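Annex B. Sample input.
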Amino acid sequence: MKKLSLVYLTFLLSACSSLPNLDVGYYLPKSQVVITVNQIVACKDVANWSYTVLNTIDIEEQYSADTSSIKYISLKNIDSWYSKSDIEIGLKDDGRLSSINSSNSGHVGEYVDKVVSLVSNIKSQEIKPDSHICDFVVKHHETKFDKAIGIYTLNLVFKARNDFTNKVDNKIHFKPMNITSANYNSYSDFLGSISGSFTNTNTHSTEHFKNIKDITNTEFIVFKVPLLVKVQVDVINKSPTTASKTVKAPHLSNKEYKLPIPSAPLFGTNGFAITLNEKGEVNKIKYSSDNSGAGGVDALTKLYTLKESDKEKVTELNTQADLIKAQERLAKCQLEPSTCE
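Annex B, continued. Sample output.
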């Protein structure tokens, strides 16, 4: 798994100095889905060929920078001549905001997104004799042959990606990765058809922060409230397989909210720290206020942590490789019951 690198900009201010007159730019996130359909075709090497087909659909959310517009944090708006200030801004490789005054340990955001976006349905067609499809399987260069039980297995892979920005065509178009379109069409009686679509629900995701007061006199971070898009994929054959998932699409939304970054008071300190997940949502935010001027003796600290239910699902991770192996085992089991575990 590719690790996300963070770029940190740190500005430390002494009592007689100030933050530079600098605006730090960052991008808001955008999303897309990457969909993989695997079809395992298994054929048993007997006088009368028998075959089975298993379908698996994986829907994965991916997030990156929406470079169509850029937001800025002005350091001068956080600074003041009479107080000490320091700020650390973390940016991802692509320019998305990762954190302010907080280290983002690990890469849980990327990992969790892949877990919860994995939707897998494994279904198989009935076993039936036919040499037409099995002739193709036997001759394919990626076919595996289990000599001990006389079974050939071939994994056909189809890919699609979509960012939901096409307002004319809401269809998701799949590209065969290891079979030509002509060959696939000629075996459609056995393999069926693959189709997908997306629907903008015109519903926004939950807003976690309400009653944000006027912040015209302070600096702030801009967030999008994502629209929800429903994605559906169908494999139509002897055993129809369907998978659907609701995906957050911040780049389709015009709805924003702003969280204030407090500037330093005349006496005491104002603390602020925030970390964001891969989707650009607040994972943890901390505001602290100390007006005692005594270095935090009477500090009042409030810590808000949004429940990351995704973390509870980490143990449910099934990688695509694991699913393919599961398909192959099931296909062999159907054709040769003695291999069933």
